[in-house]
């Protein structure tokens, strides 16, 4: 390998996480030659440090919580979770942090994989520095797609690096259960990891700067989740900021803005994400290093007809499933433009437009209880200028909820546009509600009129009867 060696492709993808893999899959399916570059593990954040390991940790927690609500079963699960067994299963889900299977998949679709650091080196050019220091230039006839994702954003606290804090990566890959864990933040990562490690035996203290948990959902979602976490033993302190963190003789000491001194074995900062764009050569094409990349609905970077930014890096919806959705859109758009097929910019729901990122983004928080939402909250709909009404239902009144056992607590909200009588947003909170959210996503993305939803009959007795109760509440209010 020499510094001047150059290989030409139709498409070059920087980043081989699930988003980059899907871009490569779609462009290869369209007959375009494609190279994909990865500096870490093929499969990316989701496979090794986010979606898969976190859900592998949480599934036993939620299964046990469900069992404890059921007479005849709760007696069999009174003992604590077997944390080493759960961690071992987590390791299986991550393939023990080896990417052989993912590499085989990339090879199977006919894309060329380059191991190393990929950086833009001018228009349509990517320089790859391999593990051995050798360099190679990849040129793209049609498109370069940046799919480098995001990383945990840490606050600017003096000496924080000396504390060796956990981020989402350490929280999902830790080998042992800490006796005491401080969780800084109140979003999805904070809630899910507090749920998991509390269940494994850690004493969890959550320090939340805002008024409550899950601030981007309807307020009752965070309230019900906080209530359950508190009942499980977590100490949740809202309206609290961390002023300093030190590690003294192995013990983490966090001092809050109220002057409280909290000691723990580990501290997790789940305080937001930052784009992985600080060292990918953006300056060589007139873009700001370290910035989120603005895109149009075909995922093309503003002002660059050959450059695409897909997934977290464009800051539209920092969720793996949305990134994969964007990848399908971007792949179709790249292929269409490469073949000279005109893209109809006026078709908002066409094959080349990522419209759902504006209107119908679903998300599930795998806590106990689960929280799931899609579309706009009531506050967001009102702020957007829609004339709406929200209707709420206590999910414990739905027949299917009773099958989940004693003391079911849950709530559903549907936000209805009064002008068009379509659903703008839906939120569910309660055990088992994660499986309800796709029906809500179809209703929101499809702009299904309420008059039609009346004829979508939910099976009895399932929690899906929540839809009937919501429609009745709207009709009768």
Automatic annotation (TrEMBL):
<dbReference type="InterPro" id="IPR036188">
    <property type="entry name" value="FAD/NAD-bd_sf"/>
</dbReference>
<keyword id="KW-0520">NAD</keyword>
<keyword id="KW-0285">Flavoprotein</keyword>
<dbReference type="Pfam" id="PF02852">
    <property type="entry name" value="Pyr_redox_dim"/>
</dbReference>
<feature type="domain" description="FAD/NAD(P)-binding">
    <location>
        <begin position="9"/>
        <end position="321"/>
    </location>
</feature>
<keyword id="KW-0560">Oxidoreductase</keyword>
<protein>
    <submittedName>
        <fullName>Dihydrolipoyl dehydrogenase family protein</fullName>
        <ecNumber>1.-.-.-</ecNumber>
    </submittedName>
</protein>
<dbReference type="InterPro" id="IPR004099">
    <property type="entry name" value="Pyr_nucl-diS_OxRdtase_dimer"/>
</dbReference>
<feature type="domain" description="Pyridine nucleotide-disulphide oxidoreductase dimerisation">
    <location>
        <begin position="361"/>
        <end position="467"/>
    </location>
</feature>
<dbReference type="InterPro" id="IPR016156">
    <property type="entry name" value="FAD/NAD-linked_Rdtase_dimer_sf"/>
</dbReference>
<dbReference type="InterPro" id="IPR023753">
    <property type="entry name" value="FAD/NAD-binding_dom"/>
</dbReference>
<dbReference type="InterPro" id="IPR050151">
    <property type="entry name" value="Class-I_Pyr_Nuc-Dis_Oxidored"/>
</dbReference>
<dbReference type="GO" id="GO:0016491">
    <property type="term" value="F:oxidoreductase activity"/>
</dbReference>
<dbReference type="InterPro" id="IPR001100">
    <property type="entry name" value="Pyr_nuc-diS_OxRdtase"/>
</dbReference>
<keyword id="KW-0274">FAD</keyword>
<dbReference type="Pfam" id="PF07992">
    <property type="entry name" value="Pyr_redox_2"/>
</dbReference>
<comment type="similarity">
    <text>Belongs to the class-I pyridine nucleotide-disulfide oxidoreductase family.</text>
</comment>
């Amino acid at each position: 390998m020499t510094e001047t060696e150059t290989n030409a492709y139709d498409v070059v993808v920087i980043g081989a996480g699930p988003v980059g893999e899907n871009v490569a899959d779609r462009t290869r399916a369209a007959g375009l030659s494609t190279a994909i570059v990865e500096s870490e593990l093929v499969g990316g954040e989701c496979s090794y440090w986010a979606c898969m390991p976190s859900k592998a940790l949480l599934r036993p927690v939620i299964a046990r919580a469900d069992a404890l609500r059921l007479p005849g079963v709760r007696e069999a699960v009174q003992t604590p979770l077997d944390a080493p067994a759960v961690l071992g299963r987590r390791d299986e889900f991550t393939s023990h942090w080896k990417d052989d299977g993912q590499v085989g998949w990339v090879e199977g679709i006919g894309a060329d994989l380059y191991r190393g650091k990929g950086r833009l080196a001018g228009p349509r050019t990517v320089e790859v520095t391999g593990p051995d220091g050798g360099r190679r230039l990849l040129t793209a006839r049609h498109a370069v797609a940046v799919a480098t994702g995001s990383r945990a954003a840490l606050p600017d606290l003096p000496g924080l690096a000396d504390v060796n804090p956990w981020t989402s990566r350490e929280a999902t890959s830790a080998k042992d259960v800490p006796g005491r864990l401080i969780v800084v933040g109140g979003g999805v990562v904070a809630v899910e990891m507090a749920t998991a490690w509390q269940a494994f035996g850690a004493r969890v203290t959550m320090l939340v700067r805002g008024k409550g948990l899950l601030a981007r959902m309807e307020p009752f979602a965070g309230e019900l989740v906080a209530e359950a976490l508190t009942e499980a033993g977590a100490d949740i302190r809202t309206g609290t900021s961390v002023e300093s963190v030190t590690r003294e003789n192995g013990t983490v000491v966090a001092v809050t803005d109220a002057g409280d001194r909290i000691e723990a074995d580990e501290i997790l900062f789940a305080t937001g994400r930052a784009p992985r764009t600080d060292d990918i050569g953006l300056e060589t094409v007139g873009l700001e290093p370290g910035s989120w990349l603005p895109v149009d609905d075909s995922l093309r970077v503003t002002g660059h007809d050959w450059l695409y930014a897909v997934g977290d890096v464009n800051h539209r919806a920092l969720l793996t499933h949305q990134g994969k959705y964007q990848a399908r859109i971007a792949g179709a758009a790249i292929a269409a433009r490469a073949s000279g097929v005109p893209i109809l910019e006026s078709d908002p729901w066409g094959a080349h437009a990522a419209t759902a990122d504006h209107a119908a983004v679903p998300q599930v928080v795998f806590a106990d209880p689960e929280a799931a939402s899609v579309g706009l909250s009531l506050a967001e709909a009102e702020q957007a200028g829609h004339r709406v009404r929200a209707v709420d239902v206590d999910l414990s009144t739905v027949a299917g909820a009773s099958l989940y056992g004693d003391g079911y607590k849950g709530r559903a909200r549907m936000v209805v546009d009064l002008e068009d009588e379509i659903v703008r947003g839906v939120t569910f909170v309660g055990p088992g509600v994660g499986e309800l959210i796709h029906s809500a996503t179809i209703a929101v993305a499809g702009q299904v009129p309420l008059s039609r939803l009346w004829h979508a009959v939910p099976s009895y007795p399932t929690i899906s009867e929540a839809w009937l109760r919501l429609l009745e509440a709207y009709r009768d209010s």
